[in-house]
């Protein structure tokens, strides 16, 4: 099924996943889809490996963590969250020489916490490589970053605008 891209999200300076100046990181761009899912299309590098041509499990979990956490901004653009619990199922090796699609969506918000689920799809946009469930605690951005600056949080224009994406996956909401 084809999903329309509604919005591109901001990037940070130094975050391991989305920091545009983090040279060891993934520099991922995140997009909000019309169905309430946030996605990033990305590819790891050799320095993200565990076994040869296999992405390290910690990096897989970082990708799922941030993608799910960002999905809250579709319905609550001003909300920031910190991860308090994350469960990851590694279903198949995540290759480093092919694009993958990471998807995250929110399943529940209650009080100061929200929950979401995520999936990593292979380059065929269908084969499930990993799945995840996360819980996040809503926190004021100034309590999260303390004295650190907010200035690196910025919109990065795409050279080729991503307007839609085709995914062969059913996004279920269990709660
Ligand atoms: C340039 C500016 C911007 C830069 C941004 C850069 C990058 C970010 C990129 C994108 C951002 C957008 C979205 C991304 C979303 C996620 C991405 C990844 C996020 C992370 O990678 S983030 C790192 C890992 N994450 C942490 O660093 C959290 C450490 N933690 C704490 O900071 C405290 O733990 C806190 C504040 C959560 C609560 O602390 P507190 O002192 O305010 O309150 P307290 O302790 O009383 O807890 C209150 C109630 O939460 C329960 N509770 C607490 N922790 C729990 C746990 N783990 N499990 C189950 N329940 C828990 C208690 O049991 C109590 O429950 P009850 O009320 O029922 O008793």
Automatic annotation (TrEMBL):
Record carries keyword Zinc: no
Membrane topology summary: Peripheral membrane protein
Location(s) in or outside the cell: Cell projection, Ruffle membrane; Cytoplasm; Membrane
EC number, as in UniProt: 3.1.2.2
Domain Thioesterase: 55-127
Top enzyme category: hydrolase
Keywords recorded for this protein, A-Z: Apoptosis, Cell membrane, Cell projection, Cytoplasm, Fatty acid metabolism, Hydrolase, Lipid metabolism, Membrane, Transit peptide
Keyword Membrane attached: yes
Catalytic reaction(s) noted: decanoyl-CoA + H2O = decanoate + CoA + H(+); tetradecanoyl-CoA + H2O = tetradecanoate + CoA + H(+); hexadecanoyl-CoA + H2O = hexadecanoate + CoA + H(+); octanoyl-CoA + H2O = octanoate + CoA + H(+)
InterPro entries for the chain: HotDog_dom_sf, THEM4/THEM5_acyl-CoA_thioest, Thioestr_dom
Entry-linked Pfam families: 4HBT
Family membership noted in the UniProt record: Belongs to the THEM4/THEM5 thioesterase family.
Protein name (Swiss-Prot/TrEMBL): Acyl-coenzyme A thioesterase THEM4
Species of origin: Paracholeplasma manati
């Amino acid at each position: 099924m084809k999903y329309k891209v509604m919005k591109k999200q901001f990037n940070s300076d130094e975050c391991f996943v989305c920091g545009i100046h983090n040279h060891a990181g993934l520099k991922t761009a995140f997009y909000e889809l019309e169905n309430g899912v946030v996605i990033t299309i990305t590819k790891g590098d050799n320095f993200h490996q565990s076994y040869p041509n296999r992405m390290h499990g910690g990096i897989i979990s970082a990708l799922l963590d941030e993608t799910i956490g960002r999905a809250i901004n579709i319905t609550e653009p001003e909300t920031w969250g910190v991860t308090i619990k994350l469960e990851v199922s590694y279903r198949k090796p995540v290759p480093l020489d092919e694009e993958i699609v990471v998807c995250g969506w929110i399943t529940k918000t209650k009080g100061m916490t929200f929950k979401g689920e995520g999936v990593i799809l292979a380059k065929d946009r269908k084969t499930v490589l990993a799945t995840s469930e996360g819980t996040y605690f809503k926190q004021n951005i100034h309590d999260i970053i303390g004295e650190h600056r907010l200035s690196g949080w910025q919109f990065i224009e795409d050279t080729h605008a991503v307007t839609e994406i085709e995914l062969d996956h059913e996004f279920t909401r269990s709660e």
